[in-house]
Structure formats: structure tokens, C-alpha cells
Amino acid sequence: MKIKVKFMLGLTIILIIFSLLLNILIRQVLMSNMESGIKTSLEEIMKSTREYVKYRLAINASYSDIDGFKHDASYIAKYVVLNNECKCELLDMKGNLIYSEENRPSQEITSDNIKKAEKGQAVIDLKYRGNDAHGILAFPMYINSNYTGIIVLDKSYSNSYIAYKKTIQFITLGEFLLLLFILILTYFITSKITKPITVLTKAVKQVGQGNYNVLLNVKGKDEIGILSKEFINMKDKISEQIQTIKLEKEKVEKLEKGRRNFFNNVTHELKTPLTAISGYAEMMLEGIVEDEEFRKRANERIFLESERLHKLVLELINVAKGISSLEEEKKTIDMHKLLNEICDDMNIKARKYYMTINRKIEAGYIFGQTDRIRQVIINIIDNAIKYSVSGEFIFVKAYISEGKYNIEVENKAEPIPDEIFKNIFDPFVKREGGNEEQSRGLGLYICSEIIKEHGGVINIENGKIIKTKIKIPYFGNNLATNR
To answer: Helix (H, G, I), strand (E, B), or coil: what is residue 56?
Structure first.
């Protein structure tokens, strides 16, 4: 339940209770005043009646006080009725009726009242019937200190009672209208007071949902205004902290991605020098190499590949320690030399499966990272060896066309299944079969990423002849200065 509703409900209950209590109090005060006025009026009538009776009996001295009271009862009653607009009865000292306009005892007077009057007490009793109020007065009559009888008066005070009821109705209506006005006024005041709280609540919810650009325009120097300003400060600080956390998270993710890429790359790069070293060493141990120039070149290749392997191992150790490896500097690459070196090295592996690498390589240069490009070419030729039919040729062709240095590797093999071919450059996509156990399926994905980094494209043509095509921007403008 909202604060405004709670406040309005509580205030309404309090005002209703207060109005009821006030109305009851006013009713009691007005009733008391009305009854006091009636009693005063009856007391005045009692005084004037006693004076008249004394005067009447004084001028008629032929009877005793008691006999004169009985004899002049009709005159006394008529005088009282005419002068006070009331009903009148006269009783003797024992309470027996002497005179009444209706010749019967009044129904309003009770025996208790008569007994009290017999004992010398004046009794006033008020009776209410509908919109009428009756004042009944019973008092003893004394003449010369002698108890002569009882006079009973019944006077209607309907005008006073109706005026009292109208006054109560008017006051009740006034209280209702005042209560309604107070509630309406309170509603608008509470709405104005609680509006900033509602705005602040909505802002808190939006911030809780991650929206830190929410605008909050709450003016004022009261507690709500101070709270709003502090909330804005808190929101801005939280937003700054979250931005800092996001930046740190991006750094961590970038670092982690770099480490993963490094490990994925290095596992492929480690295979290349090991393959070359193993191939040349095996040929020399078996005594196949008789040409001294080839032996010298083999020793040189074993040394160079060992150095490259050593460098990779050192980088791997640095990454494992949390030290970022330095990215290889880009430079002009002699593709004719690089491709021939790779073909010579991979030819050793191809011979194990009775294959031969035929090459047709044009001179040309590109600008990039030598080891990364070497990794791509080795991976492509290695895949050709893995999946080619034994005893077949693998063709490597390189040429310049339309400002691009084009490399094509072609081999005869079983067609790549469609479900693998359509995702061939995605990570962890493997092709079953081949001449060796499969890797994790990252080779072509890494190749694709490296070629993209060098501004080139790579694609594969599927069929009984598998052809891998690579296009990298040709770096012919700096050819003369980089030879």
C-alpha cells in the first residue's frame, strides 16, 4: 500500500472519529441548554401561578384556603392555560383530581412525581415524542404555609425542540462539508509531498534495472530534496564504478583471449619446426643424404628450426607467468623465398606418405608478420598431406594478380562433407579421417584470422580436387628499397 493511501486512510479515520465525538458533544451541549431553558421557563410559570392562586384566594375570603382552592380550581386552570398556552390539572392533597380540562388524570404525570409533590417538592419532567418536547411540572401549592393541593402543568416546547434538531442537522452538514474539504485539500497536499517520492522510487527501479542515465528533477531543500541529491550522487558514482568494472573486464577478457589465441597458435607452430627437424635428422641418420650441399642446408635448417622452437618455448613460459608476449613486428616478406623454404620442409613429411609437392612460385612481396604467414602456409600444406590420396601430387602455385599475391594449394582427396564444409573456418570444426590423428579443429580458424589481420581473404573449393586459395595485398611499391 502506498504512503499516500496509508496517510489518507489514517487521516480519514481520525477525522471521522473526531467529527463523531464533536457532534455528540455538541448535541449534548445543545440538549443541555434546551432543557435548561425549558426548566427555567417552567419555574417562571410556577412562580406566576403561585402568585395568581394566592391573589385569587385572597380576594375570595369566604372560603378556607383548601375549600377556596377547590372552588376556584376551574378559574385557576383557565388562567394558567390562557396565559401560558399549556394544559393544567389541579389535585387535592392526596393526589385526587379536582379539575382537568379533559376530566381525567393526565397520562404524563406519574405517581412518583405526585408523591414527591405531596412531600413538598416541585418536580419537572421532560418527555419527547417525534418532533415535540413536553415539559411537565408538578408542584405543591401552599397558602399561608398551609398545604392546599397540587398543580400539574403540561407545556409543549416543540418550537425549541425543532430548532434544536435543525441546529444539529446544520452542524452535522457543516461538519461533513468541512471533513470533505479537509480530505480533498489533504489529498492535493499529500500528492504534492509524495510526488517526489514517487519519482525517486521510479528512478531507483530504473537504476536497479541497469539504466544509469535516468534523469531526476526534484527541487527543494527539505529531506526529500536532500535525499534526491544524494541519490543522484550515488547513481553517478555507481555508474562510474560500473564503467570502470566494464573496462577492467574488457581488459581481462582481451588478455584471456590473447592467451588462448597464443596457446592455440603455438600448438600449431610447434609442430612445424619439429616436423622439419625430425625429417632432416631422419634423412641424415639413414644416410640418404650424400650431397654435401644438401647436408649443409639440412644442418642449417635444423639449426634455424631449433632456434624458432626455442623462441616459441620462451614465449610460452612468459605467457604462463602472466607476462604478455611481444607481438611480432611487421616487415616486408619475400614470398618466393618463404614458400620455397616451406615446400622443402614439408616435402620431407610428404615423402612419408609417398607424395610429392610440385611448385610454381612467382617472385613477390607482402607486408606482414613472417612467422604468422609461415604458420598459415604450413597449416594449409599440412592439411593437404593429411587428407590427400597416397601417391598423388600436391600442387603449390603462387602468382600476382590485380594487386594481390595469390597462393593456391591443390590436392586430390575425398570431398569434404557438407555439414563440415559450410562451417570449415569456425573453431573446433574437425574432419574425420586423414593420415594422422586430428587436432582440436583450430587450424583453419587460426589461418582465417591471420589472413584477415593481413587484409586478405581465404577460401576453399570443395570436390574431388580440394583447392585452398589465399589472396594478400601485394607490396610491390617498396620492393626496390626492401631487397
So the answer is: helix
